[in-house]
Write a structure and sequence with these properties.
RNA polymerase II cis-regulatory region sequence-specific DNA binding; alpha+beta; 308 residues; Double Stranded RNA Binding Domain; zinc-finger; two-stranded antiparallel sheet
């Protein structure tokens, strides 16, 4: 915990700097250095918050549900999920939001604004560069590592090694609980949450938690109304998830990749095939708690509950 830390580390490289009266920062001077990763900060308060990402300290606790946070501001935002307070309102539809950033995402879904340019990652030394730049005029990465299976080139040996596992089938990361293997360490970390129940990514709008950040990002669209995936067949339909777009595009292409092994009938969605299979198996998963009658399809079950 930070209260037991050696604070000489906290002020590393700061002792030779001239300190202004009562101030903990000098504009433009990043003299406070993290003892864990050497990242620099202009003031000690920023450094203190940053170092919690290394120590795991979360000093701010919600008195209603026990959730803990790194920063006081994050706790205040979370508490709105309990109080129902939504101070940020859309000027177009009056919908309320807990956070300003969620409102901003929602507004883009209303106006169609697309402020972010597609980028390409050129490694840790270069970072991300917008695709609308001429790479030949800016930076040309050296791709010296070539995959012996498909010839694809990589700038970093680690990237090539990870890629080659797709060809070799190598999965060096093993779950100690169930024995399942993974090609990448990040996949193993995500999988282990299915055993531990850990859901570290929380929606600040409704409090729902997720084991993966990507799942949280998709969920946020249910609040913002954002639908970034548009149909390329000129029908104008938009979708919140890429999988929904793929399913929709089959209405244009006529593709039906899921076939019944019993009768050969094909379907655009796997869920439709699963429902159809009940006509062969006789499965009736929907049961009335009043009379015990069972139904194979939810529509028939709902009709029964409405009219008896």
């Amino acid at each position: 915990m930070l209260k037991h830390m050696n604070y000489s580390k906290l002020f590393y490289h700061a002792s030779n700097s001239t300190r202004t009266n009562g101030a903990d920062s000098i504009p433009g001077d990043k003299r406070f250095v993290c003892s864990y990763c050497s990242k620099r900060f202009r003031c000690v308060s920023q450094l203190t918050i940053h170092q919690r990402s290394h120590t795991g300290e979360k000093p701010y606790r919600c008195t209603l549900c026990g959730k803990r946070y790194l920063q006081k501001g994050h706790l205040y935002t979370h508490q709105r999920t309990h109080t129902g307070e939504k101070p940020y309102r859309c000027s177009l539809c009056a919908k309320g939001f807990i956070q300003q950033c969620t409102l901003d995402m929602h507004l883009r879904s209303q106006t169609g604004e697309k402020p972010y340019t597609c980028t390409e990652y050129l490694g840790p030394d270069v970072g991300f560069i917008p695709n609308n730049l001429n790479f030949n005029e800016t930076v040309t990465p050296n791709k010296n590592f070539k995959c012996v299976f498909c010839g694809k080139s990589f700038e970093y040996l680690s990237h090539m090694t990870r890629h080659m596992r797709k060809h070799s089938g190598e999965k060096p990361y093993i779950c100690t609980v169930c024995g399942k293997r993974f090609a990448q360490k990040t996949y193993l970390t995500t999988h282990q949450r299915t055993h531990s129940g850990e859901r570290p990514y929380s929606c600040m709008e409704c409090g729902k938690s997720f084991s993966q950040k990507s799942s949280l990002n998709v969920h946020l669209r249910s609040h913002t109304g954002e639908k970034p995936f548009s149909c390329s067949h000129f029908c104008g339909k938009r979708f919140a998830q890429k999988t929904y777009l793929r399913i929709h595009q089959r209405t244009h292409s006529g593709e039906r990749p899921y076939s019944c092994m019993e009768c050969g009938k094909s379907f655009a969605q796997k869920s439709s095939l699963n429902v159809h299979l009940r006509s062969h198996t006789g499965e009736k998963p929907y049961s009335c708690s009043e009379c015990g009658k069972s139904y194979a399809y939810k529509q028939g079950f709902n009709t029964h509950q409405c009219f008896g």
